[in-house]
Amino acid sequence: QVQLAESGGGLVQAGGSLRLSCAASGRTFSTYGMGWFRQAPGKEREFVAAISWSGGLIYYADYVKGRFTISRDNAKNTVYLQMNSLKPEDTAVYYCAAGLTGSSRAGYASWGQGTQVTVSS
User: Fold this and answer.
1) What's the rounded Cα separation, in Å, for the pair 89 and 5?
2) pLDDT exceeding 70 applies to what percent of the chain?
3) Distance of CA 54 to the CA centre of its chain
């Protein structure tokens, strides 16, 4: 069904910025919620941000609020995650997911392959 492809990860110094993109293909996505999750080595996958593509609802995890911004471009079936003031603890593989908007990974049926974000001190 839906294929998700993350891009934009890389290696940055603490305090730097990155913008992640997640492009959906295979079907229209304007009525589906999208979420960003991340997973560090040896850690559980954790919620980062979510957005409803039709309702404009946006949610952030407390540890990224004020630093990260999630946005969407429905015409391009793409969701973005602008990450500013990056910290070494933000180092993880970042995944986008499609499904019902929410903070639980159980609510998302489709996942991308992930993109690595590494923040050096």
Assistant:
1) 24
2) 94
3) 17
Dig out the tokens for 27 from the structure. Answer: 């079907």
Helix and strand numbers, DSSP H then E, in the chain? 0, 11
Distance CA 29, CA 16 (A): 31
Closest CA to 101 of 65, 59, 71, 67: 59
- Using the 8-state DSSP alphabet, how is residue 63 labeled? T
Q: What are phi and psi of 14, to 5 degrees?
A: -55, 135
Q: List the beta bridge partners of residue 59.
A: 50
Tell me if 117 sits within 8 A of 90, measured CB to CB: yes
> In which region does residue 114 sit, left (phi positive, over 0), alpha (psi from -120 to 50) or beta (all else)?
left
Give the pLDDT mean for 35-45: 96
**Confidence band, pLDDT 50/70/90 cuts, at residue 77:** confident
Name which of 119, 121, 118, 102 is nearest 36 in CA terms.
102
Q: What is the pLDDT confidence band of residue 12, given thresholds at 50, 70 and 90?
A: very high
**pLDDT band at residue 102 using 50, 70 and 90 as cut-offs:** confident
